[in-house]
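ok so heres the complex, four chains, lmk if somethin looks off
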Amino acid sequence: MVERAELGSRKSAVLHAIVEEYVRSGEPVGSETIAERAGIGVSSATIRNEMAALEELGYLTHPHTSAGRIPTDIGYRHYVDSLPAGGRLRDAQRRAIASYFAEAILDLEEVLKGSVQLLSRLTQYAGLAVPPSVADEPIVRLELIDMGPTMMVLAVGQHGRVDKRILDRPESLDDRALRETERRLAELRGMTYTEAQAKLLKLAAEDAREHRDLLLDVAETLRTAQHGESGGHVVVGGVSNLADEAQAWRRETLRRLFETLEREQEIMHVLQDVSAGSAGLAVTIGTEHPSTGEWDASLVTAPFRVGDTTLGTIGVVGPTRMDYLSAMASVRAVARRLSELATELDG
Amino acid sequence: MVERAELGSRKSAVLHAIVEEYVRSGEPVGSETIAERAGIGVSSATIRNEMAALEELGYLTHPHTSAGRIPTDIGYRHYVDSLPAGGRLRDAQRRAIASYFAEAILDLEEVLKGSVQLLSRLTQYAGLAVPPSVADEPIVRLELIDMGPTMMVLAVGQHGRVDKRILDRPESLDDRALRETERRLAELRGMTYTEAQAKLLKLAAEDAREHRDLLLDVAETLRTAQHGESGGHVVVGGVSNLADEAQAWRRETLRRLFETLEREQEIMHVLQDVSAGSAGLAVTIGTEHPSTGEWDASLVTAPFRVGDTTLGTIGVVGPTRMDYLSAMASVRAVARRLSELATELDG
DNA sequence: TGTTAGCACTCCGGCTGCGGGAGTGCTACG
DNA sequence: CGTAGCACTCCCGCAGCCGGAGTGCTAACA
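and the predicted structre for the whole thing:
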């Protein structure tokens, strides 16, 4: 990372004006346009000097000699970093959020699906969310269900998570043994997924009998539940927004983006990656992250939490030429509401 | 629908050749190209006459006077209808299918997800599936789970379907009443979802006590489980294929297509609609269906079944300029394997 | 020293005109 | 009925040209 000196306040103002104008119009912006904007009060010639300097510093580029300027990723970065903390929502947006959270929905998974939809409608980008991990959640039910030739392992978490897995039922496992095993599993209630998994592995190791494999299978069910491998469990919504004509993505780039959005594991890691650094709102712009760089995309994410523990992450993906101000305000507002709701459900 | 006379066998051959060539190249095909193809043995001038006739009959169009011909939806329809029943899979495809179904997966929902992925890889289009309705499936578990201030209704079906719903726990419902209600629910085991739902409504009607709402809520859970409203439950995969550069969709059309693919209810109805008419493989081309017409798309679907009862539908969506032969072969093969697997799991 | 007016210069994008080529439809002939 | 031949149509790519938007530089000014 190159060390960059603080920009003068006029340079900063020019950069802001360019970013905003470019985000609005989608076209390279010229010095004249900026000079005419109220608030800078300086001629286009001066703006041209500033622009040349900003380009020298890496904040702007040209598509060609006689075109206007467009922001680089670094330009967007500076713009975002120097944004006032409290971006404002439009009234309609505020109302949409309020009315969504006014409905009493008790299931956090459902709420997340809805929130992602909501965000995608608010921002016109695609919404994403990583749901809470169940690792530290107490188990309230752990059952083996007889299903004829097969059987189901069913785990229910304190906060409403349900996981299942279907297994072959070994011939050696008669009804008595099934009930016996189920009784042993019932003893694990109240433990967290992690604890229960460890306990099962221990039991299986001690247990030379034939139920060993069964215990291992149950442990495996708990493991995948924690890592979200069974079904991925990243929530994605509003991807059709990304195919909008206004978004100037190349076809191939768009394809790759969709491809990644289908690989839930990957998306999950990206989201965890980008939100790891910061405690609140995190913005990742284009090439700043290897994955998002591949598709010219930016991410705006925020964690939702109960007290000090982070439950998950919610946010949007869009083009680098994104309306960051509005996206940040929307994501922040939704994340806050989610935190409130989660706190309430928890209590 | 205009009544169309049987095409002569040469006209039909010409139409076939044009469809296949156009699907391959994506460009309007000229009389010369067809004449050079082995199998017709007639000069380009003759082909031109045939083409003019086919255009007159509505099977072909021109983009402009001096361009080659492209098939209309009606042209594709005739092509598809006169295709030999057994399209052949390439060896690699056959192997991919075999190896997928060789893995022992016991959960039909998981299998469907995988099958849809498989189909999308085989065909390079997007895969779709409607899972079995749970309406006539016996319930093996129906539980109320205490979750502190809330509680969960949990229903498990004979074939592995799990549904849940989280409810507010009324203050009036103490632990004793909860267990009492749970005992009553346990009596519904063995009934199908439909039966259990009806029974619950009846119980609620007779029951003047305060648990009435609770019973209604449980009934509602069973209802949405049947109609797939909770989560939609259409399985979609490989949508990134649709954004491939080779597919000549306009941006706006693509957007609408993605939009529909996100509305699971709608997709489900479309699929049920198109597969309703036929007992086996069904092909819907472009404007033949109001929905698919909106996005220039074609659907190839097939039911999977156990014995005589249809469980669900699986298929692909792609552009009208689709490789129908290969898509049909893939869908047919996967549907057959699914039926076999379902029969096995059932037995 | 910073700002500004002026100006030459660059380069894109749209318009025009011009073949070349692909493909058609028609006609006349075997 | 099929085919060879041919005139005709229309797209598409290319070259050249112009107008305009926007730049960078210079010189003058506060």
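quick notes: Residues 42-46, 49, 63-67 of chain B lie near DNA strand D (CB under 10 Å from a C1'). thats all i got rn
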